[in-house]
Design brief:
Elements: E1 5-16, E2 24-29, H1 31-34, E3 41-44, H2 47-67, E4 96-105
Antiparallel strand pairs: 1-2, 1-4, 2-3
Length: 106
């Protein structure tokens, strides 16, 4: 059986919590799926939790496209990823933004 590897850039937005001092959350977005109209954002209380949620989300999105026999979007080159989400979840802009490829093997 052949293993298929799906690898997509995910953007991590670190945002200060507006009500809790010295607290932050990490929002993760998959721009390639967002462009297809898919809800492609998850969050976590820290990077580890956000990464785990992002991996689960990627798996769900790929499986949804396969199940519905839709064309899975091509992955963007990391250098060409648009970092602007168009919204801020919190009142302030993110204090840090990172991009990392997330992999789902099927």
């Amino acid at each position: 059986m052949t293993v298929q590897i799906y690898e997509y850039p995910a953007v991590f937005y670190y945002e200060k919590h507006p009500l809790i001092l010295d607290s932050f959350s990490v929002q993760v977005c998959f721009p390639d799926f967002k462009r297809k109209g898919f809800i492609s954002t998850v969050s976590g209380r820290n990077r580890v939790e956000a990464l785990a949620c992002a991996q689960e989300l990627l798996e769900s999105m790929v499986e949804h496209f396969i199940h519905d026999k839709k064309t899975i979007p091509d992955a963007s080159e990391m250098e060409k990823v648009n970092l602007d989400r168009g919204i801020n979840i919190c009142e302030a802009a993110p204090f840090r933004i990172e991009i990392e490829n997330i992999i789902y093997e099927k």
